[in-house]
Design goal:
403 residues, alpha/beta, Rossmann fold, 3 domains, 6-stranded mixed sheet, 4-stranded parallel sheet, 13 strands, 36% helix, globular
């Protein structure tokens, strides 16, 4: 393996990235930032980009950030992984609104309840963020073929960004992936393969294709860059709340890139001096038919055992095992958060309720956070005065059959 090379903060137009290296989140081995990597070569765990945050402070003050006209995931480009601005593609992802849920908050007895509506991203889900970052970095690394397994929405996002960039996407999805999402993938140029099984089986097929064809895998947390796109949800949350953080974040969790990405973002923002050391309680929500993280959290396990016979109509959180399980569990425990399961009937009821009382149609995965909130109030985990943010990770229009 090549020795680690510190590249520092490159003096490029639009304040180039201050990326310095990749670091394994488990064994702490370091890798060169601007070379193709997936998982750690030593232990097989997740790699994170690291940045020269002291250098980034020079251009990332609150005053200078407010002067920026860019309102997408590249707003704080110094702490994003793409060096050269010509590779930072965009379809307008990010900077989604935070909406007060006054009516449903009243029903739940909560004074300060909000939703960050990720359904307003270009492909209708938060997946736009991560795949924008991954494809952008792939372009900078000279890559032209990207492969991934998906429950559907991530595949649609990959197809959108590869189409925009003029490169290729190869996507493996379960056969029960909603027909509309299958069409999204196909019509945006993705090569779609249907798999007999859940996303773990799709992952096996995608891995075989990756090895056979030399394609670059952008499977959840099996490369270092999707998490960087997802962490921008944390950047935005802080800035939209005037550089403070809410008391609680409730997040639907499958592979977990979003929740661990935000946890990474908060640490970076603190080092930059943009926020203090107060953190929200992080809450993972999973369906009762597939709750490996919930079980591991309750059992105080470091890793989550795969969930057998996984089932739920919320395909995006029907993930039997996640390579970033230890990162998710760390964020829950460090934040004094929790993990909770809700069943499909509760999810569907929450979908309809939010649409009826707030005028917001969200996908099943996002609706799981609404169902969880009601249960967490009943359990006494949530206090009436706390500022609580739900993540509406996708639009209800991505799953029309559910309506």
């Amino acid at each position: 393996m090549n020795a680690v090379k510190e590249i520092g903060c490159l003096k490029l137009k639009n304040n180039g990235s201050c990326i310095t290296k990749l670091v394994c989140t488990n064994c702490k081995k370091e890798f060169i930032a601007n070379e193709k990597h997936n998982l750690c070569d030593f232990c097989g765990k997740v790699l994170y980009p690291r940045y020269d945050l002291e250098k980034a402070k020079e251009t990332l003050s609150k005053e200078l950030i407010q002067m920026r006209k860019v309102h997408n995931i590249w707003r704080l480009n110094e702490i994003m992984p793409v060096n050269d601005s010509k590779y930072r593609i965009t379809l307008g992802e990010g900077w989604t609104p935070i909406i007060t849920l006054k009516n449903i908050g009243h029903d739940f007895g909560l004074k300060d309840l909000y939703i960050k509506d990720e359904g307003l991203n270009p492909t209708g889900t938060f997946k736009s963020r991560g795949l924008c970052a991954a494809v952008s970095k792939g372009l900078e690394l000279g890559l032209a073929d990207f492969v991934m397994p998906s429950a559907g929405n991530a595949g649609a996002a990959l197809s959108a960004y590869t189409a925009h960039a003029g490169v290729k996407a190869h996507i493996f999805v379960p056969q029960d992936t909603p027909e509309f999402i299958q069409k999204e993938i196909k019509y945006m140029g993705g090569e779609l393969t249907l798999v007999d099984g859940l996303i773990n089986v799709a992952g096996q097929k995608a891995k075989e294709a990756e090895i056979k064809n030399g394609w670059f895998s952008v499977s959840t947390l099996k490369e270092p860059y999707r998490v960087e796109g997802k962490k921008t949800m944390g950047f935005e949350l802080a800035e939209q709340f005037d550089w403070t953080l809410p008391d609680v974040i409730i997040y639907p969790t499958g592979g977990g890139t979003g929740i661990v990405g935000m946890w990474k973002a908060f640490k970076e923002l603190e080092i930059l001096g943009l926020i203090g050391n107060k953190r929200p309680k992080m809450v993972t929500v999973q369906p009762t038919g597939c709750q490996p993280i919930v079980r591991a959290f309750k059992n105080d396990d470091k890793f989550a055992k795969p969930w057998e016979n996984a089932h739920s109509f919320a395909g995006g959180i029907r993930v039997p095992s996640a390579i970033g399980d230890y990162l998710i569990l760390n964020s829950l425990r460090e934040s004094k958060g929790t993990a909770i399961a809700v069943d499909d009937s509760e999810i569907k009821k929450a979908m309809y309720k939010l649409a009826k009382v707030e005028g917001i149609m969200i996908c099943p995965e996002a609706a799981a956070t609404v169902a969880a909130t009601e249960k967490l109030v009943e359990d006494g985990f949530l206090a009436p005065s706390e500022k609580i943010v739900l993540f509406g990770t996708g639009s209800g229009f991505t799953t029309p059959d559910n309506w």
